[in-house]
Write a structure and sequence with these properties.
By secondary structure, the chain is an alpha+beta fold. The chain contains 5 helices and 21 strands. A 6-stranded mixed sheet has the order 1-3-5-9-10-7, with no helix packed on it. The longest helix has 25 residues.
C-alpha cells in the first residue's frame, strides 16, 4: 500500500517508501502525470478568469448569441442574404442619397414620350420605346453579305436589279431600265435619250449580232457611240444632266488590229522616209538605198560610176546588188568595188564577164573578200564597165535632172556638212585599181548599186 514514511521507523526503507508515494502523481522528471489531478479538482471550482483568453472570447460570443446580441465587426457580407437589407436598415445618410437619386428623374418620365428610356435586362431598349421609323431586324445567317433596305430594314436580294430583255431593235431606253440585254442575232441599235432620271445602267449584248449603243439627244463621254460584240457590256453613268460617262469593254482583238495597223503605218513611213525623201541623200543618209527610178546606159568605155554610202549599222559587206535592164551586144566586162571616203579600194569583185549580155533582172556579185563597215562612216560603192560598141547595156539607176542638180554638182565631196552630189563619174579601168580616188564632179545619171551584207555588233 502506498504511504508516506513513518518517522522513527522504516529504517533503511524510508527512501523507497517515499519514492513509491511520489510516483503515484509525478513522472521521473518531477512533472505531474497526465490526468493525475482530474479527480482532485472539485466541480465548479474553476472560474472564467482562470481560463485562456481564447476560451474566454468564445464564451463571450456564446453569451452574446444567447442574449440576442452580435459582437462588433463579427458579421461578413457573405453572411448577408442578397436583397435582405431594406432601405430603412441603411444609414440615414445613405437613405438621403438614394432619395435624391430617385428624385433626379421623375417616375413619370421613365419610358414616357420625350422622357427617359429604360433598359431591359439585356441593357437594350425595349421595342415599345423605339421610334416608329426605326425598324428592328433579327439576326439571320441567310442574310450574310446582303445590303439592307434603309426604309424597310429588309435584306436586299443580290439579283433584284431590273432586267429588260430585248430580242430585236431598235430600242430606246426608258426610266427604270437598269440592265438591258440584247439577244438578237442581227445588228441592232439601242438609243439613250435625254431626260432620264436614273443615274446608272448597264447595256449588254448576249446575241451574236453587233450592238450599237448611241446617244440620241443625250451625250456620251468620251465616245459618240459604243459598239458591243457578243458577250460584251457597257456601263453608263449620268455624270451631269444628259451627259453619260461610258465605260467601254476591253477589246483585245481591236487593240491587236490597231497595233498591226500602226506597225504597217510605221513601216510605210519608214519606207517613205528611207526611199523617197528627195533631200535625204544630200545630207548623207544612205543614198544608195533609194528605189531606182530610171535607167543608166553603160555606153562609155572604162567609165567609173560612184554612189555615196553611209551604213546605219555596223555591218560586214559581202557584195553588190544591181539590176540589168538591157542586154549588151558584146560581152562587156564589169567590176564592182567599195571605196573609203578617200578613194582607197576596200573590197571588189574583180573583173567579171558574162554579166551584161546574159539574163535580165536582179543581179548580185560577191566581193572576193568581205569587209567590215562602221556605222555612220562615209564610203563609196562603184562599178566600172568596158564598152566595145554595139548595143550598150543599161542598168536600173537614177535620172538626177532637175533644179537641184546644178547646186549639187557644185558641191565639194568630203565637206563637213556632207552636202555632196547624188552620183559621181570618172574615167577608170576594169579592173578597178587599189586607189581610184573620188571625183568632185557630179553626174546626172548613175546606176543603182546596193551594198549587201550582215549586221555585226
Amino acid at each position: 500500500m502506498t504511504r508516506l514514511p513513518t518517522p522513527g521507523q522504516d529504517d533503511g526503507t524510508w527512501g523507497n517508501v517515499l519514492n513509491d508515494f511520489l510516483a503515484q502523481a509525478h513522472a521521473t522528471d518531477g512533472s505531474l502525470k497526465p490526468a493525475s489531478v482530474n479527480s482532485a479538482i472539485s466541480s465548479g471550482s474553476i472560474i472564467k478568469t482562470q481560463l485562456s483568453s481564447g476560451v474566454q472570447a468564445s464564451l463571450d460570443n456564446a453569451d452574446a448569441a444567447a442574449a440576442g446580441t452580435i459582437a462588433d465587426n463579427s458579421v461578413s457580407t457573405v453572411k448577408i442574404q442578397d436583397g435582405a437589407v431594406t432601405t430603412p436598415k441603411l444609414a440615414a445618410g445613405v437613405q438621403t442619397s438614394l432619395t435624391a437619386a430617385d428624385n433626379a428623374i421623375p417616375t413619370s418620365q421613365k419610358g414616357a414620350a420625350s422622357g427617359v428610356a429604360s433598359l431591359d435586362s439585356g441593357t437594350k431598349l425595349t421595342a415599345s420605346q423605339l421610334p416608329a421609323n426605326v425598324v428592328t431586324k433579327s439576326a439571320d445567317s441567310n442574310d450574310t453579305g446582303k445590303a439592307i433596305d434603309a426604309y424597310t430594314g429588309s435584306p436586299l436580294a443580290l439579283d433584284s436589279l431590273s432586267v429588260t430583255s430585248i430580242t430585236d431593235g431598235p430600242y430606246t431606253v426608258v426610266d427604270g431600265d437598269e440592265v438591258i440585254q440584247m439577244t438578237s442575232a442581227n445588228p441592232e441599235t439601242i438609243n439613250v435619250p435625254s431626260g432620264l432620271s436614273q443615274q446608272i445602267m448597264e447595256i449588254a449584248n448576249l446575241g451574236t449580232g453587233t450592238l450599237t449603243v448611241s446617244a440620241t439627244t443625250a451625250t456620251f463621254l468620251p465616245a459618240g457611240s459604243v459598239t458591243l460584240g457578243q458577250d460584251q457590256s457597257a456601263l453608263l453613268r449620268q455624270a451631269t444632266t444628259n451627259n453619260w460617262l461610258v465605260s467601254v469593254p476591253f477589246d483585245s482583238t481591236s487593240i491587236e488590229s490597231d497595233i498591226t495597223s500602226l506597225q504597217t503605218d510605221l513601216g510605210t513611213l519608214q519606207s517613205d522616209w528611207r526611199f523617197r525623201n528627195p533631200r535625204r541623200e544630200a545630207y548623207g543618209m544612205w543614198p544608195n538605198e533609194e528605189i531606182p527610178t530610171s535607167s543608166t546606159t553603160l555606153n562609155v568605155n572604162n567609165q567609173l560610176y560612184y554612189r555615196r554610202f553611209i551604213p546605219r549599222e555596223n555591218m560586214t559587206a559581202t557584195g553588190v546588188a544591181w539590176a540589168l535592164g538591157t542586154l549588151s551586144t558584146n560581152n562587156d566586162a564589169v567590176d564592182f568595188a567599195i571605196l573609203s571616203s578617200t578613194g582607197s579600194r576596200l573590197a571588189s569583185t574583180g573583173s567579171l564577164s558574162g554579166r551584161l549580155n546574159a539574163t535580165l533582172g536582179q543581179k548580185y556579185d560577191a566581193f572576193t573578200a568581205t569587209v567590215d563597215l562602221v556605222a555612220g562612216t562615209e564610203y563609196f560603192v562603184c562599178m566600172c564597165t568596158a564598152y566595145a560598141g554595139g548595143t550598150a547595156a543599161s542598168v536600173g539607176g537614177y535620172n538626177l535632172l532637175g533644179g537641184a542638180v546644178a547646186i549639187l554638182n557644185t558641191a565639194t565631196v568630203g565637206t563637213a556638212d556632207k552636202y555632196v552630189p547624188n552620183g559621181l563619174r570618172a574615167n577608170g579601168a576594169v579592173t578597178i585599181g587599189s586607189s581610184p580616188g573620188i571625183p568632185t564632179a557630179g553626174a546626172q545619171s548613175v546606176p543603182g548599186l546596193f551594198i549587201r551584207g550582215t549586221r555585226t555588233p
